[in-house]
Amino acid sequence: MFFPRLLALICLVGFASGTGVLPDDEVESLRVIARSMGKRDWNFDVDPCSGLSGWVTQNPDKGFENAVTCNCTFANNTVCHIVSIDLTRNYLNGTIPPEWGSMNLVNISLLGNPITGSIPVQLANISTLANLTLECNQLSGTIPPELGNLPRIEKLLFGSNNLTGELPETLAKLTTLREFRISDNNFRGSIPSFIQNWTNIEKLMIQASGLTGPIPSSIASLTKLTDLRISDLNGNETTFPPLSTIGKTLILRSCNIVGELPSYIGEMTGLKVLDLSFNKLSGPIPNSFARLFDTDYMELPNRDAAKLDADRWGNNVQLSPIFFIEITCYFQAKKILRQESWHLSDIVCSDLSYNNLTSESSTSNCQPRDLNLFASSKGNTSGIVYCLRHVRCERRYSSLHINCGGRQERVARPRGTATYEEDTNSGGPSSFTTSRTNWGFSSTGHFLDEDRPIDSFVWSNSSSISGPNSQLYMNARLSPISLTYYGFCMINGNYTVYLHFAEIMFTSDRTYSSLGRRIFNIYIQGNLVWKDFNIEYEAGGVNKGITKNFTAIVTDNTLDIRFSWAGKGTTVIPVRGVYGPLISAISVDPDFTPPSVENGNSTSVGGNSISVGVIVGIAVGVLLTILLGLLSDGTIIAVKQLSAKSKQGNREFVNEIGMISALQHPHLVKLYGCCIEGNQLLLIYEYLENNSLARALFGKPQDAYEKGHMWICFVIYLLMDQVNANSLKEERNLMELVDPRLESNFNKEEVMTAINIGLHCTNVIAAERPNMSAVVSMLEGKVGVREFVSEPSASTGKMNSNTDEGQSISMDVPWTASSASTSDLYPLIVDTGYWEKRDQ
Predict the structure, then answer these.
(1) Strand order in 430-434's β-sheet?
(2) Are 387 and 362 spatial neighbours (Cβ–Cβ below 8 Å)?
(3) Transmembrane residues, as ranges (predicted)?
(4) pLDDT at position 667, please?
(5) In what side-by-side order are the strands of the sheet with 186-187?
């Protein structure tokens, strides 16, 4: 830039001479500035241009400036004039004095001070002004229209204040402008089209400014832009703006952009950062994107995206909300750079979390290698993310306690002592991590322009925190954009979520480090529960723990808690890169009484205590009751209690132990064990939920439970409507059983075959029912199906008296099937004395 070099030359010439004197009127102006802004270390007993006594800090800390710079080349080096006042991060109070308007300043920098009031219109009188930096203060009011008259201005930096109103039209005249920042304010109106006049602009930052979209198409005329950052625009949807000349950084996050990605982005090979997250882009990622091999960070998420080309990304992959690719470790081999197409398997370090990938192409692993696929599958809005659906829940949980960023801690709570699990994984810009129990977290984004000493996503507190459970607030997890904690294998029901916060990166002293503002949003189960949450404000200061509680309803055994940065708050205090969500601990407690051994009827299975309660009873062939159970280790089970007096129940008990325990199949529930005690017969199965006949018949594919069986549903339907079925059979009108919503869109011959098979399977005489092998053979057309003849006179007594094992089926058409006896599959010996006792 021109003016820093100019100031360095002026400083060298002016201080080298040592003979120049500052005029009295400028000295008086400095006195006014010192009084109005609380600048107490200026010593007016010496010449302000001497560089002594607080007028210049030699070798200041990075980001901290305290310098009054003079040009002493006037009147043969005998007269000095102040050309720069840089008071960055000096913790100055008060207001900006109008007296500055009478000085011939080139540079004014007040970044990182709690200065209040408005921007004085008198600053527009400084015709020499090239840089006006007022970021990270507490200024209010509007931007004075008079600033549009500054003829030499190059930098206007107003970010992180409380400025309001519309951008004045007079700013269109600032053709010398090179950098313009107004992020984190409360402006209104839309982004003005007059920015097309800023033909020398190189950096333009309008993040969470309050302005609305759309982005004007005239922005294409800004050919010198190297850094464009626009985010969080409200307003109407807009297509992707023409931005083919952007040099290094392009951020258009949450700008309501729709349509396809332009292929020219792939030609912008100088890009280092590309962020198009939280838009509504659709269509394929262009082949040209493969050329962006020098890009450091790329985010291409979309909420409502269409399919990508299958030959590049696999089958039915879709764009969506946080697609972060660190392309510095992107390609496995240089030869890929010569290929037009690019493949998901070629990505070494990437993040596809919060996407709408279709479930067909989704993986059961949330992070294979370095690829973050957390919440990447299509249909995430319906519940659990795809890559967690395959998590096997050996038990169900009714609580969750996490010490975010810290080690395991034992904490006293109103409901008793709880162990907060360790969460010390370093995380990173693209990571999904799971615990050894029932939770995990996904972190997305990268801290841009950061000056933090450690590029860490976990922060440790260097100060002490007073109050109860202070150990929970000594560490915290950070994220630059989005941080989601996920609890799975949860018992469905209502919960109270306790979120523990403490601001541990700012200070409470009277320094610039106390001026930071951290603002982010909180979502629970996808619902926004707190917008613009500010930890320090809610806690009443820094290093003070605060807990916020919310209600959550778990319906699919999963709980998600997300923290999201929307561009608000400071980003440069105490250093650049301090912003985004911060969470100290999470606790989740049930609002119901979890099943336990103290509640309900208890029995014992394999050394585990079971607490059960009746949930449903169905009479199908024999009397039975299904009980909901909970083992002492938390595993939820289904307990099938067979009739204590039915001989058929005896046989069913033996058959199920032999058959189901010997067979392992995705469509068969698992048999954990059995219990024979007194006259009780209990079979212990894995507990399956979220299933119903209606869902299996009419639900969407993703809603149909994996182990639901359509044929069983059909048989149950015939059982419920058996009287009507027999009546229709006699009337030769079985087609009336077909759902009328199918209209005529089915094969009548196939339907009649299925109905006849179903009627055979529901025959009141058990011995006349075909086994499942025979049913399969008939459905496959390997054997014929005899027309069913009902036996209305058949009685329950006859049914019970003809159920001996091994009885053959007497029909004209033989059932051909291969089968194995129970004893072949699973030899079982039961003391005959048991059977005698239980029938007494």
Answers:
(1) 430-434, 439-444, 482-488, 558-564, 519-524, 527-534
(2) yes
(3) 610-631
(4) 59
(5) 140-141, 162-165, 186-187
Contact present, 372 and 349 (Cβ < 8 Å): no
Look at residue 595 and give its three-state secondary structure: coil
pLDDT higher for 318 or 280? 280
- Between CA 631 and CA 395 the distance in angstroms is 9
Helix axes 710-720, 722-730, angle to 10 degrees: 80
Q: What is the pLDDT of residues 255-278, one digit of tens each?
A: 988 888 888 887 887 788 888 877
How would you label 692-704 residue by residue, b for 16+ Cβ within 10 Å and e otherwise?
Answer: eeeebeeeeeebe
pTM value > 0.90: no
CB-facing half-sphere around the CA of 708: CA atoms within 13 A: 22
- The phi and psi torsions of 238 (rounded to 5 degrees) equal -145, 155
| Tokens representing residue 193 in the block | 């089209």
pLDDT band at 600; cut points 50, 70, 90: very low
Tally the residues of the chain.
840
Q: What are the chain's domains?
A: 261-390 (no CATH), 392-590 (2.60.120.430), 595-689+810-840 (3.30.200.20), 721-805 (no CATH)
Among 518, 497, 501, which Cα is nearest to 560's? 497
Sheet with 416-423, strands from edge to edge, namely 409-413, 416-423, 400-404, 585-590, 493-501, 546-554
Q: Which residue has the tokens 């950098």?
A: 179
- Integer Cα distance of 485 and 421 in angstroms: 13
User: Helices 710-720 and 748-761, interaxial angle, to 10°?
Assistant: 70
Q: Are 70 and 83 in contact (CB under 8 A)?
A: yes
Residue 615: partners with Cβ closer than 8 Å, 6 or more residues away:
626, 627, 628
